[in-house]
Give the backbone structure.
Amino acid sequence: MGMMVTARRVEATSDEVRYEFGLDDKFDRVLTIDPHTLTARVEDGDFNSAAGAITAKIVKAWRSSGEFPTRMLFAS
């Protein structure tokens, strides 16, 4: 069974980048990434496979371009 996780950036400051994300365009969870350490956490405390997958895609894009993307999609 496949998984589709989408994320949209909702805030970016010098200390954190926040994304709303979820399965199938629901955007019902919040992911926060520290731009200095690239440490990620989720607001609900459940860092599951969906959170890990979208975090990896966002960080990979940041490493490639030097900027956090406004939107991201992970599909498997």
User: Anything to note?
Assistant: The beta strands are 4-12, 17-23, 29-33, 40-42, 71-75.
